[in-house]
Structure formats: structure tokens, C-alpha cells
Design brief:
The protein is about 65% helix and about 10% strand. It has about 120 residues and is mainly α. The chain has a two-stranded antiparallel sheet. Strand 1 and strand 2 form a beta hairpin. Helix 1 packs antiparallel against helix 2. The chain starts with a strand and ends in an 8-residue tail after the last helix.
Length: about 120
């Protein structure tokens, strides 16, 4: 039976979070749709809020929803940890952020170099 948890007052109304099935999550990886569309399809299976409603929550409210989601899906997260998936995702995020920082620094360096060029007509 699917677990749920209803939080009594998130953004002035009750919000329910739902346990998701591995099939629901795996569909994200097998779809040809863009990530935003996939996330919008998965969201109603996770929480009784729309994407816009989630974006309108205060960070403290979002944290409560996330905590409830983790509790309801604790068995699933435990399986992911045991399989090493959580650590692999963490490593991918670190690599991505490191690469993005390096790319940003390179683009910034190129922009500064281009701006400091004095060759060409002056006004």
C-alpha cells in the first residue's frame, strides 16, 4: 500500500506527499521528453502541489515538504544508498559543478580580455 503524509499547513493549506514507485522514477530515464516535461508529469505522483505552488513556498515550507517526502520514501532512498546510486549522483553533481565553474571562469577571462583590447577605432 502506498504511504502518504499530509502536512496540515503548508502555504496556508494541507499538502500531501506520496510514496513513489521505482517505475515512476525510472520513466524519467526512458522518456524522450525534456526534463521539465518529465518532472511535471512525475510531480503529481510525489506531492499535491503544482510546480508553481512549490515555487511559491517559503524555503522553510519547502524544507518541510522535502523532509516528509524523504520520510514517506525512506525505503526507496535506502535502496538507492545501498546500490551506490546516491554516491554516484553526488559525484556527478560535484563533477558538473566543477566543470561549470571552470567554464564560467574561462568565459569571464575571455570577456575581460576582449573588453581590454584597445585595437580599433576610438570615439
Amino acid at each position: 500500500m502506498q504511504k502518504t503524509n499530509t502536512l496540515p499547513d503548508i502555504g496556508g493549506r494541507p499538502v500531501t506527499v506520496y510514496e513513489v514507485r521505482p517505475r515512476d522514477v525510472l520513466e524519467l530515464f526512458h522518456s524522450r521528453e525534456n526534463l521539465k516535461t518529465q518532472a511535471q508529469r512525475l510531480l503529481p505522483r510525489c506531492v499535491s502541489l503544482s510546480a508553481d505552488e512549490l515555487l511559491d513556498l517559503y524555503p522553510s515550507e519547502s524544507a518541510e515538504v522535502w523532509k516528509a517526502f524523504q520520510e514517506v520514501n525512506s525505503a526507496f532512498f535506502d535502496l538507492l544508498r545501498a546500490a551506490g546510486v546516491v554516491e554516484q549522483v553526488r559525484e556527478m553533481m560535484v563533477m558538473t559543478m566543477t566543470d561549470l565553474r571552470a567554464r564560467y571562469a574561462e568565459q569571464y577571462r575571455q570577456a575581460i580580455t576582449a573588453l581590454s583590447t584597445t585595437d580599433g577605432p576610438s570615439s
